[in-house]
Write a structure and sequence with these properties.
By secondary structure, the chain is of the alpha/beta class. It has 4 helices and 28 strands. Helix content is 17%, strand content 26%. The strands form 3 sheets. Strands 1-4-7-10-13-16-19-22-25-27-28 form an 11-stranded mixed β-sheet. The longest helix has 15 residues.
Length: 281
């Protein structure tokens, strides 16, 4: 049966696997499900309709599955879904989803979320993602597989961080981040290819060279661009030159989607709520 410290409060309706460990002074709500091998260390709170897979380790003072920090939230029965083998460090907060999106916040598997990070409502985190200390993700952000976000970086709502991308520490991210690229600054600007992350992902050398070409074609400083339509021309040229390179194709598709979005954020073009309505209570 689960190992529960005498000072912890676990609702009898919570579903805990037989080998779950709950530390001192934790609070586990009635709609929580914790999979096999999960460890919840001291003083953490897990509430809401929150489902965790197997072998997750939750460090002290985390608040997971709490009500969204969104004035449009009206108490709907939304979700937090967490996969397997995640390490969620001290003081992390992850909120439930809302009816203004899919109604769920999702964290994949094999992720490291470091201390004081915040994952807001309706975010989607892929697999093998590293979110370092004090990173702040606004609502509806998507972070794709193997991306890494440096300490104290802040990501605007509805931004997509591409697969294998790297966001440097203390960066303000207001536009989508292309796959396999490094961004840095306030606001963020693409600085080059994330070679370290790409090599860790097993990107072959030929594709790394092609990604360098894509960077030079698409992300030069604006003062070096010769015409307004140069980005579209560069995308068409990359299509023609690298039709079979999956990595370049992902960059090209991401740039096109961002261009069709709102303020460089593709996901914001998909929102269905009226952002001008008054959410005041």
């Amino acid at each position: 049966m689960p190992t529960i410290h005498p000072t912890a409060i676990v609702d009898p309706k919570a579903e805990l696997a037989q080998d779950v460990v709950i530390g001192p002074y934790c609070l586990i709500g009635p709609k929580v499900t914790l999979g096999a091998g999960t460890i919840v260390r001291s003083h953490s709170v897990i509430e809401g309709r929150s489902t965790f897979g197997e072998r997750n380790e939750i460090w002290p003072y985390c608040t997971l599955g709490a009500k969204p920090q969104d004035l449009k939230y009206r108490g709907e029965d939304s979700l937090l879904i967490v996969g397997d083998d995640n390490e969620i460090r001290e003081n992390v907060s992850i909120n439930l989803g809302t009816a203004n999106d899919r109604g769920e916040t999702v964290v994949g598997s094999h992720n490291l979320i470091m201390a004081y990070a915040h994952v807001a409502h309706d975010c989607i985190i892929g697999d093998h993602v590293v979110i370092t200390n004090a990173v702040q993700l606004a609502g509806h952000v998507r972070v794709n597989d193997a991306a890494a976000l440096g300490g104290a970086s802040a990501v605007h709502h509805f931004v997509t961080v591409g697969e294998g991308a790297f966001v440097a520490g203390m960066t303000r991210v207001v536009h989508d981040v292309p796959p396999y690229m490094t961004v840095e600054g306030n606001p963020a600007r693409v600085r080059g290819v994330n070679f370290i992350g790409a090599r860790r992902r097993g990107v072959p050398d030929a594709s790394l060279e092609n990604l360098k070409s894509a960077y030079r074609a698409l992300f030069r400083p604006l003062h070096e661009m010769s015409s307004v339509g140069e980005t579209d021309a560069a995308l068409a040229r990359l299509d023609a030159e690298h039709p079979d390179d999956a990595y370049v194709c992902r960059v090209v598709e991401a740039v096109r989607l961002s261009g069709r979005g709102v303020h460089g954020r593709h996901r914001e073009s998909l929102r269905t709520d009226n952002k001008f309505s008054n959410p005041a209570r």
